[in-house]
Design a protein that fits this description.
- The protein contains 14 helices and 14 strands.
- The protein is of the alpha/beta class and 374 residues long.
- The chain has 2 domains: 2-180 and 353-371, Glycogen Phosphorylase B (Rossmann fold), CATH 3.40.50; 196-351, 3-Layer(aba) Sandwich (Rossmann fold), CATH 3.40.50.2000.
- A 6-stranded parallel sheet has the order 4-3-5-6-7-8, with helices on both faces. The chain has a 6-stranded parallel sheet with strand order 11-10-9-12-13-14, with helices on both faces.
- Helix 1 (38-52) links the parallel strand 3 and strand 4 (56-61).
- Helix 1 (38-52) packs across helix 14, helix 7 crosses helix 12 and helix 10 crosses helix 13.
- The protein starts with a strand and ends with a helix.
Length: 374
């Protein structure tokens, strides 16, 4: 059978029965290993968990070991990869997968052509939630069209699911599946520092690294022994490094990019993880912080509200003074901090694992295959 794909013809054998023991999946994401952000972590961990369940998984990515070759047109990797896949989606259907599963939304992929196989998206967050840009309407519309081409959209949180539905995607084609969190294993010599604050994330305005540094500086000025660290890379790195350098006594350090094991060590060392994000689809760093036994202090925005809930402290977005005040209070109140940390760690352990995520995602695949025309 010959089918039109991305403007070009591509062969497609008859699909396997949806209840066959093994499912074949193509995961598509701009980010991959080593992850630069949450979508890279999602792709890597979901791939591992699906393979452990017996699925055959192939990855198409814009960077890392599974990167495909594509032209750099806009200077933004995820947009350039989206352009390439809209010109020809053949890389996604190599090997005749049962399902193609793309990471979408800001930083993700937008496929506007139909595939000959069922298409599933994961919406980590949406352009409606995140963008404050003159081109916002254009990207919202492109994302809407992409999701309408999909058999199902997986949203990482109820807030993101509501945003997807508000874009016109039928609610019956949206499922909420939380990403998993693996065990945070710190080095044996790592001990919790009750006066240490930490920022982990992409050094981009959406993540608020400069607000994090300012909040940590305010705490260090008032609280003896308080310290901070910044982990990440991105366009704001020079400004963040400069701001850190203005802290007297070197009490805040700029660590830049670190390996997974080093990040785990820092999460286990910190008492507080500072998250002044402008938005989050879910807040993977928050989940990792909670799993490690640190308390999240951040801005009260979509995504973090779903993730942190009553297990951390959130303040009005943009209020750096209040964020600093909360951090200082938490560092000075060991009992309250301990209660929040224990409740957060238990919540993550009980509710979120990659094996549980993969089981739910595979159930979506099988539902899609059951209802797809054959």
């Amino acid at each position: 059978m010959r089918t039109q794909i991305g403007g070009e013809e591509a062969g497609r054998a008859e699909p396997r029965h949806p209840h066959s023991r093994e499912i074949s999946v193509c995961l598509g994401s701009w980010d991959d290993e080593p992850p630069l952000g949450g979508q890279g972590v999602y792709t890597r961990e979901l791939r591992r968990a699906l393979e452990e369940r017996g699925a055959r998984v192939r990855t198409v990515a814009g960077r890392g070991p599974h990167a495909m070759r594509y032209r750099r047109v806009t200077g933004r990797g995820h947009l350039d990869l989206s352009i390439a896949l809209n010109r020809s989606a053949k890389p996604l259907v190599i090997g005749n997968p049962d399902v193609v599963h793309l990471s979408g939304g800001p930083g993700g992929l937008l496929l506007l052509s139909r595939l000959a196989v069922p298409l599933v998206y994961t919406a980590h967050h949406t352009h409606r939630q995140s963008m404050r840009h003159p081109l916002r309407r254009i990207f919202v519309e492109l994302e809407r069209r992409a999701y309408l081409k999909a058999s199902m959209v997986i949203a990482v949180s109820p807030t993101t699911a509501s945003s997807v539905v508000s874009m016109g995607v039928p609610a019956e084609r949206v499922r909420v599946v939380s990403p998993g969190i693996g065990p945070v294993e710190a080095g044996a010599a790592v001990e919790r520092d009750p006066r240490r604050m930490l920022f982990v994330g992409r050094l981009h305005s959406a993540k608020g690294p400069l607000d994090a540094v300012e909040a940590m500086q305010r705490v260090c000025e008032l609280l003896p022994g308080a310290s901070g660290a910044v982990i990440g890379e991105g366009p704001l790195a020079p400004r963040v490094r400069e701001a850190v350098g203005r802290t007297p006594g070197g009490r805040i350090v700029f660590l830049g990019r670190r390996s997974d094991s080093e990040v785990a060590d820092e999460l286990s060392r910190a008492a507080i993880v500072v998250m002044p994000s402008a938005f989050e689809g879910l807040g993977m760093v928050a989940l990792e912080a909670m799993a490690s036994g640190a308390v999240v202090a951040g801005y009260d925005v979509e995504g973090l509200r779903d993730t942190v809930g009553a297990h951390g402290v959130l303040v009005q977005a943009g209020d750096v003074r209040e964020l600093a005040s909360v951090c200082g209070q938490l560092l000075g109140d060991e009992q309250r901090r301990g209660q929040l940390a224990e409740a957060g760690a238990l919540a993550v352990a009980r509710e979120r694992s990659w094996s549980r995520c993969a089981e739910a995602v595979e159930a979506v695949y099988r539902e899609v295959l059951e209802t797809s025309p054959r």
